[in-house]
Amino acid sequence: MNHIKRQIDQIRSSLITFAAGLVKIKSYSGREQQAIEFIRQEMKALNYDQIFIDAMGNLVGRVGSGKKVVMFDSHVDTVAVTNPSDWAHDPFGGVIEQGRLHGRGSVDMKSGAAASIYGAALAKQLNLIEDKTVYVSCTVMEEDCDGENLKHLFKESGICPQYMVICEPSDNKLATGHKGKAQIAVKTHGVSAHGSAPEKGQNAVYEMARIIRRIEQTAGRLMETPGLHGTLVASQISSKSESLNAVPFECEIYLDRRMVLGETRDTIKQEMDAIVKGQNASWEIGTLNRRSYTGLEVTYHPFHLPWQIDPGHPLSTACVAAFQEAFNKAPETDYWDFSTNAVTPVSMGIPCIGFGPGEYKLAHMTNENCEINQITGACEFYATLIHKL
After folding, report:
1. Active site residue 171
2. Which pLDDT tens digit goes with each residue over 31-44?
3. Which residue in 104, 129, 201, 281 is deepest, having the highest Cβ count within 10 Å?
4. Is 146 an active-site residue?
5. Backbone dihedral angles phi then psi of residue 252, each to the nearest 5 degrees
């Protein structure tokens, strides 16, 4: 496929300039409108056949109209920058230095978005889509509500791809799946009393202290499990009282539980029941309520099972062939320990695989940056995969 490689050389500058332009746009979750419009204009310039934005604010570009349907998905929202003075470069400067693109979102995941947008356009330009419909989705609010964007998009548009590529950072390795996730709210219940008479109440914070010890013990057991294992993290705690001079009548702790293959909803139920056993406490999957930049109200129930694609699946074999073609070597594989938008298509039975530029351990970090050669390499892989499917 030397013609793909030659064309990559010709578009390299435009691709990297576009990726850097995306990084320059601050697009925190729920505030992605400027980035979406920037992408829409680029897709238009790249001669996409169709471009639309749904009611949640997700953007989709299409090339081709064949029977074989594949979608490449990237989210364009990022986590916030709380310490800009600690960065070596302006986190929204889109600085390119020593072969790397620096800034918030360069890894997670505007480089992957740029590569997929250009990859699909390249496949069209080189007539690699005669029997295919290729969608490139640029979705919103993933950082808070992974999968809700695609759930809304599929329902509103009626799109149902046969194959799904999640362009999250994988260091340009094939990501064959990822861990599941349960975000859990545990509450303890007490009795309010005046702070001068604590014996007349029941302190919900003290009740929670006993539960926290159990959480820490459970987390330790999970970490000691050999091989790929689940994790448990207490991520937030709060309490309620009538005033600062009163015994708290409620305390809540938020837990992030990651699951591996073989763990199920029953696994989580048994674990949480044991943690609150004998205490004046309850637990539930923690519901989140958010609003998209279009004003759409979004309710998110963060429970997703782990998944892994069969290595013999046609999508897997096509990815292996595309990787060998693009990089002239056998692919390395990885298994993400974080959750992605794949949770929605996987729950619908749509086969998914992950591939994207950037070291995912740099995501959300100070001095986030992505190697430019990985961006162009991902673009070449995406175009080659479209041809191979």
Report:
1. no
2. 999 999 999 999 99
3. 104
4. no
5. -130, 135
